[in-house]
Write a structure and sequence with these properties.
two-stranded antiparallel sheet, 7 helices, ARM-like, ARM-type_fold, HEAT repeat domain-containing protein, PBS_lyase_HEAT
């Protein structure tokens, strides 16, 4: 895992972890010091399954949850803290994870707390996920703006077909010919 290329280090970490051939201290070191965020992300993930010295691992994961600049690294640190489930892990989730600036990290912390407490994480209320692109709180997308939702790039308001662009803008697409069937007389039956 000494290669200069971050993706190579990430793939090496994943392969070694899947083979259970990487020591937790090596994972902690990668989590603390690697400059490539995906390496830290996967190191945080695997430490939840293979923490080694749990007290040391919780200390490192809590520090990452508090300080790492990448939300997906912090979210994996939160999930791993939930898997470890010690009192210190729960404390870190409550004090750092629930108040994180990222909604994704906050949701990961809520699920991790449920796991640590022996609850089903699928049964907890995570709140509403944020809307893509900033959500309806921006003035152009607000229902109070008077513009129909389809006029602001959100697609047709009632589940119609989207357009040709990557986010549903443009003219409506014609129905697919793959769904058209004909009866024996050649008539159209849908």
């Amino acid at each position: 895992m000494a290669d200069d290329a971050g993706p190579v280090r990430r793939n090496a970490l994943i392969a070694l972890a899947k083979l259970d051939a990487v020591a937790p201290d090596r994972l902690r070191e990668r989590l603390k010091r690697d400059r490539h965020p995906p390496v830290r992300e996967y190191a945080a993930e695997w430490l939840g399954e293979r923490p080694g010295d749990a007290e040391t691992t919780v200390r490192v994961l809590a520090a990452v949850l508090a300080r790492d600049g990448e939300a997906f690294v912090r979210a994996n640190a939160a999930s791993s803290l939930g898997e470890i489930g010690s009192d210190r892990a729960v404390e870190a989730l409550e004090t750092q994870g629930l108040g994180d600036r990222s909604d994704d990290v906050q949701r990961a912390a809520k699920r991790a707390l449920a796991t640590a407490r022996g609850e089903d994480p699928d049964e907890i209320d995570l709140g509403d996920p944020p809307a893509p692109g900033g959500g309806p709180d921006t003035p152009a997308e607000s229902p109070a703006s008077g513009a129909p939702r389809s006029a602001v790039g959100r697609g047709p308001p009632s589940g119609g077909r989207g357009g040709s662009g990557p986010i549903g803008r443009g003219t409506a697409s014609p129905p697919s010919t793959a769904t058209r069937r004909t009866d024996r007389d050649g008539g159209d039956r849908r």
